[in-house]
Amino acid sequence: MSIYENITKQLDELHEKIRPDNIDEWLEDVRKTMNIFLAGEKISHFRKTLESIEYDLKKDGSKNEQLKKIYGLINSLKTAEPDFLIERLRNSGWSIARNETGLQEAINKEALRLLEQTRLGKRDNVIGMLMRDFTTKKVKFPIELVEASKQKHDVNHFRAFIYAFLSNFTTEKTKEGGNE
Predict the structure, then answer these.
(1) Radius of gyration (Cα) for the chain, nearest Å?
(2) End-to-end alpha carbon distance in the chain
(3) Maximum alpha-carbon separation in the chain
(4) pLDDT at res. 145
(5) Alpha-carbon distance 68 to 72, whole Å?
(6) What pLDDT was estimated at residue 135?
C-alpha cells in the first residue's frame, strides 16, 4: 500500500469514528490531524526537501523532465503556504482576542492606525505596534506574526496576513439603549 493510500485510509477511519456519543475517543486525534494540515509545518518540510532535490537535479543537468515535475510540486506548495499561514493567523488571533481582553482592547484602540500602516505595507511599523501591545499586556507574541512579517512574503500577502489576524480584535460599539 502506498503512503498516500495509507494516509487516506487512516483519515477515512478517523472520519468514521466521529460521532456525538464518543467524543473522547476521537477528539485528540482530530485535533492533532487538523494541526498537521493547518500548521503548515509539514508542508514547509516537504517544500524544503523538494527544493533540495531540485538543486541536485539542476547540478546534474540531464534530468529536465524530472526537474519539471519537481518545479510543479514546489510551485503548488509555495502557492498553498500563504493560505495555511492566513488560517493559522486567523485562529491565533481568535484565541488571543477571546482569552486576552486587555490586549483585545489595546489592539482595538489602535485598529485604524494598524490597518492604515498595513495598507501602506509598513511591516516594521505594524509589527512594532503589535509587539508593544503584546509586551505591555505580558502576552506571548505569536510566532505566526513573526512569519507573516518576513520579507519572503510579498506586500499583498503581508496585508492579507495582518487583516486575517486583526479581524478578530476589532469590535464595534453601539450606543446604549439603541441599535446602530
Answers:
(1) 21
(2) 60
(3) 75
(4) 92
(5) 6
(6) 96
Collapsing DSSP to helix, strand or coil, 173 comes out as: coil
* Among the listed residues 66, 46, 41, the one whose alpha carbon sits nearest the alpha carbon of residue 56: 66
Cell numbers for 149:
512579517
Q: Quick one: average pLDDT of 93-112?
A: 92
Neighbours of 118 (CB within 10 A): 22
Q: In the 8-state DSSP scheme, what is residue 115? A: H
3-class DSSP state of 138: coil
Residues 6+ apart with CB under 8 A from 130: 107, 114, 141, 145
Q: Which amino acid is at 113?
A: R
Lowest mean pLDDT among 4-18, 42-56, 93-107, 149-163: 42-56
Dist CA 112 CA 115 (whole Å) = 5
Q: What is the mean pLDDT of the chain?
A: 86
Distance in angstroms (rounded) separating the CA atoms of residues 1 and 23? 30
